[in-house]
Design a protein that fits this description.
Elements (H helix, E strand, L loop, with lengths): L6 H8 L3 H9 L7 E3 L2 E3 L2 H15 L4 H9 L7 H9 L12 H7 L4 H36 L4 H37 L6
Antiparallel strand pairs: 1-2
Helix pairs in contact: 3-5, 5-8, 6-7, 7-8
Length: about 190
Amino acid sequence: MPDLLTLDELTERVSMSVRNIRFYTTKGLVPPPVRRGRSGYYSADHVARLELVRELQEHGFTLSAIKGYIDRIPADATPSDIALHLSLLAPVTGENDVDVHDGLVGIGVPTSAAEACAEVYARHGQQVADELSEIVRTHVWPAVRDAGGGVEDLRALVHRLKPLTIAGLVTAYEQAMDASSDSYERKGSVQRT
């Protein structure tokens, strides 16, 4: 069976224990093995999904969040499709653990407002990520693939795209905040002292 792996081969390939692989299978994070008689075998799809699970865990996703993320990936997704999701998770900088709530409270923002702000950031950050991921999936990935590139080329491109995305978001946010501030001042909502 050329493209299929035994459980031992799979554990070696993805650097996970048998116990973890079986646990992820029972939780529905990866499909059950392909049965050939009494033996179970694993495909490139299993490898890609397990690598995605590991990467999501490294990004701090809970098992419940990982399940929700994976449930949005079509069952017929190819290993390349799954690798695309993996490439979109590549980190940009080492500063990924920003505590928005505590940072805002630390500069004098009331706790309730800090909680509301953190929720806005999370909600809109997820929306931006979803929309940009869709653009990468439907426009960027086909262009890379048509030019003879592979998943690693896409991963490198996405890695270069993230700092530009962050800069674009910061610029758009600053412009919007300036416009809001000007609007408050024109309406007399904010009194100058």
